[in-house]
UniProtKB/TrEMBL annotation:
Skewed-composition ranges (Basic and acidic residues): 222-232
Region ranges (Disordered): 208-232
Protein name: Uncharacterized protein
Organism: Rhodopseudomonas pseudopalustris
């Protein structure tokens, strides 16, 4: 009995020592990062500016490293626990929200934002993901969602909504976010839709009319509508 108790106590000591070592390692790795949200927001703005420059230079290695640093920043603010994107008050979600571009403005690479483009005479509302996007840690190109604006006209899908995630391919120098989105949608129309847009089905038009935002909020984007909570 005494021997077993001693072993359990020794195991607890080892676990505590390992925990302390992990804490010290985390403190060393994040010593250069802000520890409060007030300090983190301007810091992330700086990361976004560097990330934008890296994307324009087609420097994928630097862009991915900056995304990893953004994740580490959010993890530090979350006390090194999982769940930096677990809900609207999670650090990653707050940072994304506090640094997003104004609605209607084309964002920087790495900045979340909502803006309108026109492709082949079709108006599209774009919701572009930022540094904390679903595939940001594994894909060089950010994901985005495309929503119909003119619901009585043909669109990319019969629902009036189409997401583009997990996009592959090498970065291209001097390509801006709006040019990238336009290129992806054009290629989708030509290759996947054989050049023919689809009429939006009546049930989706009706649903849109029932849930449409008032004119003053028409440009506002709801980023979680297509994704939901994430535990990264």
């Amino acid at each position: 009995m005494t021997s077993r108790t001693d072993q359990l106590g020794f195991g607890d000591l080892l676990a505590e020592a390992e925990r302390q070592n992990d804490c010290q390692r985390q403190d060393r790795e994040t010593a250069h990062l802000p520890g409060t949200m007030d300090e983190a927001v301007p810091y992330l703005h700086g990361l976004i500016a560097k990330h934008h420059a890296a994307m324009l230079a087609a420097d994928a290695a630097t862009a991915m490293a900056l995304r990893a640093e953004a994740d580490l920043l959010a993890t530090k603010l979350n006390r090194f626990e999982l769940g930096i994107l677990a809900g609207p008050d999670a650090p990653g979600c707050r940072l994304d929200r506090e640094t997003r571009a104004s609605d209607g403005t084309v964002p920087l690479w790495g900045q979340a934002g909502c803006f309108e483009i026109c492709v082949l005479d079709m108006r599209v509302l774009i919701e572009l993901e930022g540094l904390f996007g679903i595939c940001a840690s594994v894909c060089p190109w950010p994901g985005f969602a495309a929503r119909a604006i003119d619901w009585n006209r043909p669109f990319l899908s019969e629902t009036g909504y189409r997401s583009f995630l997990g996009l592959s391919g090498d970065l291209q120098p001097n390509l801006t976010p709006d040019q990238f989105v336009r290129n992806v949608i054009t290629a989708h129309i030509v290759r996947d839709l054989k050049g023919k847009l689809l009429p939006i089905k009546p049930q989706y038009r009706d649903r849109h009319q029932q849930t449409a935002l008032p004119p003053s909020n028409a440009g506002h984007c709801v980023a979680e509508e297509s994704g939901g909570k994430r535990d990264r």
